[in-house]
Design a protein that fits this description.
Layout (H helix, E strand, L loop, with lengths): L4 H9 L3 H18 L6 H4 L4 E3 L2 E3 L3 E3 L10 H5 L5 E7 L12 E4 L4 E4 L8 H9 L6 E6 L10 H12 L5 E5 L14 H22 L5 E5 L5 H14 L3 E4 L20 E4 L3 H15 L5 E4 L5 H10 L3 E4 L1 H6 L2 H9 L7
Parallel strand pairs: 3-4, 3-13, 4-7, 7-8, 8-9, 9-10, 10-12, 12-13
Antiparallel strand pairs: 1-2, 5-6, 6-11
Helix pairs in contact: 6-7, 7-8, 8-9, 9-10, 10-12
Length: about 350
C-alpha cells in the first residue's frame, strides 16, 4: 500500500471524498486481515519517546478524525505510526452534518470538512478498541453531542471521560472543532476553566478507582489570538493538564481565497494551516516552558514540516491531511529525517 499510493491517489481523488475515505480504510483492513499489510513497519519505525508519562513507539501519530469509530485500529497501526488517536466520539451516536461535507482542494494540498462529529457513539468505539491487537499508545478523542446545550457540555465530556478511561492511553478533550455550533465557546474565559476543572477532578477520582493514571490533553483551535493562547497556557499549568494538541482545523480562508470551495463552511486543514498552527505551538511553548508537552498537528505534508513543529516546541506530531495527499510514505519520510531520539 505504501509504494502503491502515488499510483492509487488519482483513482481515489476521482471519487467522492467520503467514498474514497471509506474505500481506503476498508482496503487497509482487508490487507491487515489477509496478512498482506506492513507489519514490519512497526519494528522499523521504532524511535521510542517518553511524553505525558507514556512511551510512544515514535513521534509521528495519526490525528483524530480519520478513524472516528475505532473500526480500523489494527489496519492503521500496520502503517507504522507511533501512536493513534481515534474519535471524535460523542456520548450518543449522531449522523453529523448533511452531505456534501468534505471537500478536497488539491491545488492547495488542503481539505475542508464540516463533518459535525458523525460517529456511532462512544460505546461502539470502546467495543472496537477493546478488541484491538495493537498494543501501542491509543488516544481517544471525546466531544459533545450537537444537541447538548453549551451550558450542559461538561456532562457530555464527563460521560466520555468516564467511559474512555479504562481503555485509553490518553484522552483528548475536543473543544475546538468549528463544525459543532458554539463548541469553540468552551475555549473562552470562565467556560474553559469550569470545564477543565471538572475534568481534572474526575480524572483524579478515576485514577484512584482504576489504579492507573490516564493523561488528559486539550485540543485547541488555530484561530485564537496570542492573548487567548496565553490564557489557555497559564490555565493548563494551573490545573496540571497533561498535554495540549495544537491545532484543530481553521475557519480562515485567506490562503485559499480564490478556490471554488473557499466559501464552503467548515474547518480547513492541510498545507494552508501550517503557519498558523506552528505559530500556536510557538506561543504555547513560550509560556509552558517544557512543563506541559505539545502535540503539533496542522499542515504537516513533509519531513521539513514536521521538523518545523518540533523546533517550535512540540514533542510529538500528528498527521491527517498529509496522509491523504502523501500516503503512508510520509510517516517513514519524517522518521528518517529526524535525529535518533532522546527527546523527552
Amino acid at each position: 500500500m505504501m509504494d502503491l499510493y502515488p499510483l492509487l491517489r488519482p483513482l481515489l481523488f476521482s471519487l467522492d471524498p467520503e467514498t474514497a475515505h471509506a474505500l481506503t480504510l476498508n482496503a487497509l483492513k482487508l490487507l491487515e486481515k489477509s496478512g498482506l499489510n506492513q507489519q514490519p513497519l512497526r519494528v522499523e519505525n521504532k524511535q521510542p519517546i517518553q511524553v505525558m508519562g507514556l512511551t510512544f513507539d515514535n513521534p509521528v501519530g495519526l490525528a483524530a478524525g480519520l478513524d472516528k469509530n475505532g473500526d480500523y485500529i489494527d489496519a492503521i497501526a500496520a502503517l507504522g505510526f507511533g501512536f493513534i488517536e481515534i474519535g471524535t466520539a460523542t456520548p450518543r451516536p449522531q449522523s453529523g452534518n448533511p452531505k456534501p461535507r468534505l471537500f478536497r482542494l488539491p491545488e492547495h494540498q488542503a481539505i475542508i470538512n464540516r463533518m459535525g462529529f458523525n460517529n456511532k457513539g462512544i460505546d461502539h468505539l470502546l467495543q472496537q478498541a477493546r478488541q484491538r491487537h495493537y498494543q501501542g499508545v491509543l488516544g481517544i478523542n471525546i466531544g459533545k453531542n450537537f444537541d447538548t446545550p453549551i451550558a450542559d457540555a461538561a456532562n457530555d465530556y464527563l460521560t466520555g471521560l468516564r467511559k474512555a478511561y479504562p481503555v485509553a492511553s490518553y484522552i483528548t478533550i475536543n473543544i475546538s472543532s468549528p463544525n459543532t455550533q458554539n463548541l469553540r465557546q468552551l475555549q473562552q474565559g470562565d467556560e474553559i476553566r469550569k470545564l477543565l476543572s471538572a475534568l481534572k477532578e474526575e480524572q483524579h477520582k478515576l485514577s484512584l478507582e482504576h489504579n492507573r493514571y490516564v493523561p488528559l490533553a486539550i485540543k485547541i483551535a488555530p484561530d485564537l489570538n496570542d492573548e487567548e493562547i496565553g490564557h489557555i497556557a497559564h490555565l493548563l499549568l494551573e490545573l496540571a493538564i497533561d498535554g495540549v494538541i495544537a491545532t484543530n482545523t481553521t475557519i480562515a480562508r485567506d490562503k485559499v481565497g480564490s478556490h471554488l470551495f473557499a466559501k464552503e463552511a467548515g474547518g480547513l486543514s492541510g498545507a494552508p494551516l501550517k503557519a498558523a498552527s506552528t505559530h500556536v505551538v510557538r506561543v504555547l511553548a513560550a509560556t509552558l516552558n517544557g512543563q506541559i508537552p505539545i502535540i503539533a498537528a496542522g499542515g504537516i505534508l513533509s519531513a521539513a514540516d514536521a521538523e518545523e513543529k518540533l523546533a517550535a516546541g512540540a514533542s510529538l506530531v500528528q498527521i491527517y491531511s498529509g496522509l491523504i495527499y502523501r500516503g503512508p510514505q510520509l510517516i517513514t519520510e519524517i522518521l528518517q529525517a529526524l535525529p535518533l531520539p532522546n527527546r523527552s
